[in-house]
Each structure stands twice: as C-alpha cells, then as structure tokens.
C-alpha cells in the first residue's frame, strides 16, 4: 500500500507522516511552529535581522523559496533541530515578499511568532 498523501486544496503536499494538515486545528499547527522556532533560538540561532518561518507539518525534502528574480532573493530552507520541519531564516527586508508566497498564503508555511 502506498504511503498516505497529505493534500491541501488542490495541491499535493507530500507523503511523510500520517498527519493530515486539514485535521489539525490551527492552534496545534501554530504551537508546533512556535516550538520549532523556540528550539532554533535555544540552539543559538537567534538573530534580530531575520524572521523565522516554519513548515506547518513534516516535510520530505528541503526546498528554497524564491521571493524575487535575483539569486540573493532566494531563501534557503534548513532542517529544524529534529530534521522534520523546514525553517526559513528570512531577512527582514524580504518578509513582505516571502509572506506573499503561495505556501504561506495556503498555510503550508507559518510565520513563527
């Protein structure tokens, strides 16, 4: 039997884990993202010039987010401390552009508060 595919809207978002994003309450997803961000900060990854964004669920692969046409406007994805969720350290000058990305709009990527 193939692994369970998690679907959000019309886009298939991966197969890792058994959690369907639609079944999770918004509070639980945000709490998990905040927990990941807190772990990154505790590990010494606190930088006032960046805002952390976190994938709402476990991901299969790392991926970067293109927020502009220039190479320096791509934000590289990094694994969290458990190697489950992707974290993006977004420079403050690119937060507005990053926030307009489809994955942020759909809730697949959350701003870590």
Describe this structure in words.
24% of the residues lie in helices and 26% in strands. It is built from 3 helices and 8 strands; from the N terminus they run ββαβββββααβ. It has helices at 26-42, 95-99, 102-106; strands at residues 6-8, 11-14, 50-55, 65-66, 74-75, 77-79, 86-91, 109-111. It has a 4-stranded antiparallel sheet. The termini are far apart. The model is unreliable at 1-18 (pLDDT under 50).
The main β sheet shows up as:
4 strands, antiparallel
Number of DSSP-assigned strands: 8
Unreliable parts:
1-18
Radius of gyration: 14 Å
Beta-strand content bin: 25-35%
Distance between the termini: 38 Å
> Which quaternary structure do these chains form?
single chain
Q: Report the helical percentage.
A: 10-25%
Number of H- or I-type helical stretches? 3
The assigned structural class equals alpha+beta
Tell me briefly what this model is:
By secondary structure, this protein is of the alpha+beta class.
Layout of secondary structure:
Layout: E1 6-8, E2 11-14, H1 26-42, E3 50-55, E4 65-66, E5 74-75, E6 77-79, E7 86-91, H2 95-99, H3 102-106, E8 109-111
Antiparallel strand pairs: 1-2, 3-7, 3-8, 4-5, 6-7
Supply database-style keywords.
single chain; 113 residues; alpha+beta; four-stranded antiparallel β-sheet; two-stranded antiparallel ribbon; 3 helices; 24% helix; 26% strand; globular; disordered N terminus
């Amino acid at each position: 039997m193939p692994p369970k595919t998690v679907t959000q809207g019309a886009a298939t978002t991966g197969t890792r884990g058994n959690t369907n994003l639609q079944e999770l309450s918004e509070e639980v997803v945000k709490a998990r993202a905040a927990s990941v961000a807190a772990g990154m900060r505790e590990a010494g990854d606190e930088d006032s010039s960046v805002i952390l964004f976190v994938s709402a669920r476990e991901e299969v692969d790392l991926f970067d987010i293109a927020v502009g046409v220039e190479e320096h406007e791509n934000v590289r994805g990094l694994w969290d401390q458990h190697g489950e969720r992707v974290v993006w350290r977004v420079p403050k000058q690119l937060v507005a552009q990053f926030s307009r990305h489809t994955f942020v709009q759909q809730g697949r990527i959350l701003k870590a508060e």
